[in-house]
């Protein structure tokens, strides 16, 4: 084996060193692709969840609650809500 065929003095022939570098590059590409897939799996169709919608609805209805309760008794309001939900 000639000294010029060695890869930076590591004792590996250049063909073996090139193959090792190719394998390393393939493994790195696979790891990068896995990170992309994980990122896509964590994405949602909309940038907010059910909890955010509930909070928004409650925040919008809370200031109106005293007005509704002056117009309709709480007992009748709860009966109406039970009918709607169930």
Tell me the layout of helices and strands.
Elements: H1 14-41, H2 50-61, H3 65-71, H4 74-85
Observed structural traits:
86 residues; 4 helices; mainly alpha
Spans with pLDDT under 50 lasting ≥5 residues?
Answer: none
Q: Count of DSSP E strands?
A: 0
Shape: rod-shaped
Structural class: mainly alpha
Distance between the termini: 85 Å
Number of domains: 2
Number of helices: 4
Determine Rg (CA atoms, Å): 33 Å
Return the average pLDDT rounded to an integer: 82
Strand content: under 5%
**Order of secondary-structure elements:** HHHH
Polypeptide structure, described:
There is one protein chain. The protein is mostly helical and 86 residues long. The protein has two domains: 39 residues; 36 residues, no CATH class. The chain is 69% helix and 0% strand. It is built from four helices and no strands. The longest helix has 28 residues. The protein starts with 13 loop residues before the first helix and ends with a helix.
A few lines on this structure:
The chain is mostly helical. It is 69% helix and 0% strand. The chain has helices at 14-41, 50-61, 65-71, 74-85.
């Amino acid at each position: 084996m000639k000294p010029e065929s060695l890869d930076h003095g590591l004792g590996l022939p250049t063909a073996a060193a090139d193959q090792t570098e190719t394998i390393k590059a393939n493994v790195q590409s696979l790891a990068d692709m896995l990170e992309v897939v994980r990122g896509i799996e964590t994405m949602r169709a909309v940038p907010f969840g059910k909890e955010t919608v509930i909070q928004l609805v409650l925040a919008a209805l809370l200031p109106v609650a005293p007005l509704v309760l002056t117009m309709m008794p709480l007992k009748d309001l709860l009966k109406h809500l039970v009918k709607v939900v169930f």
